Every structure is written in structure tokens, then in C-alpha cells.
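User: I'm curious whether this sequence folds into something compact or stays loose and floppy. Could you predict its structure so I can see for myself?
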Amino acid sequence: MGRLLLAEPEDYLAEVRERMLQGLGPNAGLVTATVPELAALLKVSPEPGDPMTAQARLSRTPVEVLRAVVSPARPVVFFVDDLQWAGRTPLGFVDLVFTGEEQIAGLLLVAAYREGDVDAAHPLAPMLARWSDQTDGPHQLRLGSLSPVGQAAMVADMLHLAPEPAARLARAITPSTGGNPYDVVELLNSLRREGVLTPGAGGWRWDGKVLRRRLDRVEVTALLAARMSALPSESAELLAVMASLAGQVDLDLLAAATGLPQGEVERRLAPAFSDGLLVLQCDGRPGVRFNHDRTRETVLEGSPAGEQRARRLRLARRLADRPEFFAVAAEQYLHVVDMVRSTGERRSVVALFRRATEEARVLSNYPLVERLLSAAVRLVDPTDTDMLIAVHTDRHAALYCLGRLDDADDTYRTIDRLCTRPTQLTSATMVQVNSLTNRGRAGEAMRLGLGQLRRLGMSVPEENALDEEIDRGLDELRRWIDTTGESDDLRKPEIADQSRLRTIRLVNRVMVAAFFCDHTVMAWLAIRTLQMWGHYGPDRTLVGPASHIPIVTIVRRGDYHTGPRILRRILAVARARDYEPDVWQALFIYVITCGHWFTPLEDNLPDGRRALEGLLRGGDLQNACWTHYALVCDLLDCAPSLDVFATAVEEALAFALRTGTGTPKEPSGPTAGWCGCYGNPSSRPVATRPSRACCRRTRSPSPTSMWPGLWPRRFSTNRPMRRGMPRP
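Assistant: Here's the prediction. I'll summarize afterward.
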């Protein structure tokens, strides 16, 4: 679609570009990093952003692109084949379109998959179950084998036969084809080439006895192999190279892989084109593809395993010298990594794998990332500790993103043993804190994070000294907010010290764990980040943890003024410096903790919706789910009708189900483990407590049960103020 757009007139492109940039927001750099054609269209530098949220963002950005381009006046039809082979990121995009949340007028999305390849553990399985439960979900068509009538119609159409002879021929070939359309085509073409079917004045003809004798010894799956064996040897070898690379290959890649001029490549492929085994592709760059998946599988099966491995090693070495084909070279090396023995080549392949990992991570292809890094670990020199730590750290993050958390635990212990300096362990610790928190082990996560902060040089008070430190910090913050202003913050440069920034990011991760298990530690962390803000100046990494300050001032001191005042200043600075997506987390906290104290509920709702939209764009699905909680609580008091409120509840529950955030079950992945009662929009905003069984299992309490002071009675301009309700 990007190539089609680039062919449009410039005045139309200008309109589309403006709509796309507005819809994509800070994710424009992620789109241009993954689709070069859109980089030329949008004129935005590639910037993938946080790899830990890339998967969620990459599922949503195509929706924004389509929303900017598609309309009933200019409709678009997408056909996505082989959905059973898709990773989680493209499946997430399909899910967003099919669930109705992101409906786009003028878009028709058609997806096909092989039912036999989708078992209960496949990521497509839960989506299929959800779609079938939707009353307005996608229309599902089951494509089985052709019926006798359908097969007769196909034969009649292919051979231009009258209905009666077409039905006779269809009945004759049915035992061999089973009604499979592809097998019908292959068998009829084979019968034509062998002269069993011959053209005549009245259409194609055949001798019944000859046909029966041929069909008695035909095996459709062997027909392809026979066609391959009839090709010239140089053509067969080129097909084997192509099959090793992919089902569809650009001609320049095929020329580089074989070392042949492109003209010679085309000459050698000509017999395969003549036999219909290949199809020419002219979508932007000239290329070729196999006419069917079975053709490629037949080519691969025709080579002995040893021959295939030797071929892949030759391809890998030849393509490794061409920088533009580094990812293809890495994929070829993956199949033969045990054949790489020399020290120099091993070092080069490790570098190649790490570079390919960066590309795969941008696309959120974490299965490939993990395979590349697992292979790289085997090739790294055991004495090169720094490289081992770097590779293990990247693999640890990939395992977390895949939900293989036990394996991630083992890898973290390996990294811990290898590290000789505290800074080497920080990146892995941030991921491990997330992993433990999401498994309901928030206390363990918090202790791990605090221990690493101490090793990094941060003075973390002992438990018996925390209250005193918090009281002293709150007094300092009161003086700071009274004596400084937003302009003082904006005059200071952003933090440039990378080690300090990594420490702050770790504080942000520990903050989430403390939220669920130790509010005293969480209060101290919020104060500590604000002290950094005051001392070093504002930075986007400080926005999230510092924004929790209203919780601290309201709950600990009953001070409904200072914390919200500080948070409004954080929001103002974050907006002025364009701290996306961090500003949306701050706005969400403002909406759910104190926005209702200063504006009517119906005026608080637009801020909540803006926060929700921004969090979704930023890939922060957990906070986005909790934003639904705030919105529904407000709507309970100010929605114009129960129908509006009920619709919001259903949207919130559907979102929680789709993202895995709101189901109180045992966690199984990086977004699992959050208690459903925290994201359960049907909870009353006043004095509601979660079920004991649910929260004991996930250790994720409801905000109303933790800090009831944050959710007193609130007010709406739609009805009179209740007696005794405190005013802000």
C-alpha cells in the first residue's frame, strides 16, 4: 500500500501525510523503521522507541495508517494468507480490526488460515474463540474440499466442457484428488502433458480405459517431484537455492546468493516459468515466487539433509559480504551454526546475529530474536565476559516477551554470575522486576530492585527509617513547590548521564512492584524521584514515578492540595517538552487520583479519554486498562443514561479480556498476573473491596481497598451536591 500511495499526486499525498502523522503521533518513527515506503512518504526519521512496548504499538500503528488512508470513497481490501504462520504482532493487528474497537469505514480485511495447524496453544486460538462469540464479529467461512458439483463446475470451467462430460471426468479423478482444488489443477495438467487429455473440435477429449489405467497408478503428491526431475540440473539447483531462501525472493537477492548475473538467473529460471512452477512478481522490485507452498516443500524434500546444510552455509557466507542482505545471511547461518568453527567466522556471525536481532526486535519478532541470541551464545568466546553478558541480557528480555518466564529466571541467574560491575546487571534487573511483578511476586520483585539500586549507589533507607525519610521528604517538597515554578524546571537541561537514567528507569519498575505490596516504599520512591527532578532537572524517565505523589500526600497526610499541585506542574512540564508517552501515564494518575477534586466529573472524562488514547499509542496496555476503571467510575455518577454506562463497562471488560489484563487467573506471560478487580469497571468507586480469593492469588489489590481516601464521594454538575461532600 505504501508503494501505491507513493504513486499518488503530491496534493493528495500531503493530505494523507498530515492525517497519518496526526494519527500516529510519536509512533511515526516506529512505522518508518519497519516500512521503508512509509519512511519516504512521511519524511520522518526511523525511531523504534521502547522495545518493551514495541509489540503493542506495532499492532496498533497499521490501524492508524489505514484510518488515515481508507474511506468509503477510496476503499481498501486486504487479503492475509497463512494466518497460522503469523506472529503475535500481525495477529494483534488483525485482532484489532476484527474486534470492532478500531472499525474503519471502507476497509475489508479477509484472512485465511489452516485449521489443522492451529492447536489450543496457538496465539490465534483465543482470538478465534473471541471472534466467534461476538454478535458483530467477522463472518467465518469454512473452506473444505470441493463437493462433487463444485469439482464438476471447476473441471467444466478449466476444460471448457459441457456439464455432463465434466461431471464424468470429475467423478473419475475424485478418488485421486479428494476434491482438493490444487490437486485437481495438478492432476489435469499432468494428464494434459501426458496426452491422456487431448484437445479436439468439441473440446478436450479422453479415452476412458486409458484414463482409468493412468489414474490407477497416479499419486498426486508425486506429480510435482516428477516435474522437478524433468528440469535441467542448473534450473533445479537454482530452485533449491530459492527454496532455501524463501517462498518469494527478489531477483537481486537471488543473484547475490548464487553469484550469477541477474540475466543468467532469469535464463536458468525460464524452464520453471514455462512449467508453471514459478510466478513473476513485479510489486516494486522484480522477484519470483513459487506457485504454491507445496512446490517449495517438494524442492526442499528433494535434497538430502547434508546437501541442504552445505548449500545454506555457502549462501550464508556469500550473503554475509553484502550488507544489504545481512538479515538473510543470519537466517541461513541459523540452520548451520554448528558448522561455524573458525574463531574469526564465529566472531563475525555473533555480530551478524546481534544486528539481525535489532531488526527482528523492531518487528517484535521475539521467536526469531530468541533463536538468534541462543545461537550467538554458543558462538561467543567463553573468555569474552562482556559479550556474554550483552547477549544473555538481550536473550533474557526476549524470553520475557515470549512469556517463557522460567527460562528467563535461569538466564537472569547466569547474568548475575557473570557480572563483575553493578551497572552490567541493571538492564536485566529491570526486566526481571517486571517479570516477578507480573507473576504476583511483587515483594520479591521490589526487594530485587531495591538491592540493585543500593549496588548502584542509591541510599535506600532501612525499613525502620522509611517513615522518617518520607516525612522529611514531604516537608522538602512543600517548600520546593512553594518557592519554585514551572519556568525553573524548563530552564534546566534534560539529564544526560546514562547511568543515572538507567537508575531512574529501574526506580520506575520498582515503583510498580511497591504499588502492589509496600506503599511505604512506593511513597519513598515517589519522593526520591521528585528530589531528583528538583536537583537535576526534569526528564521523561522521572514523569511516571514522580506522578504518584498525590497518592502519598493524600493518604499519608490527608493533604489534597500539595500532591495534585505538584502533579499539575509535572503535567505542564511534560507537555511543554513533549514527553510522550510518559505524559499520558501522569495524566491517567491525575484522573484516577485527584482530577475529580478540581473539576466536575463530566469535565474529568475528556482527560481520561485523552490519557487512554495516549497510553494505547504508547503501548502501555496495563495502564490503559486501568484508565477504563477511572472512566467507568466517573460515568457511574454522571453518565446521561444507564445504557451509556453499560456500554462503557462492556468496552472496558472486552479490552481487559483482549489484553490479558483483567482476568483473575494464574499468570502466563508478560501482561498476565494483574488482578481483575483492579480493572473491573463494574466495581463501585466507594468502599469497594476485591474478593479475597482473587487478590490472594494475584496479590494485586483494588485501588479503592488500598487507599479509600482517594475515592470519597465525588460531584457532578448533573445533580445537586450531596450533603457533607467535601469541596476541593
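Summary: The beta strands are 76-80, 107-111, 198-200, 203-205, 248-250, 278-281, 287-290. Residues 662-705, 712-728 have pLDDT under 50 and may be disordered.
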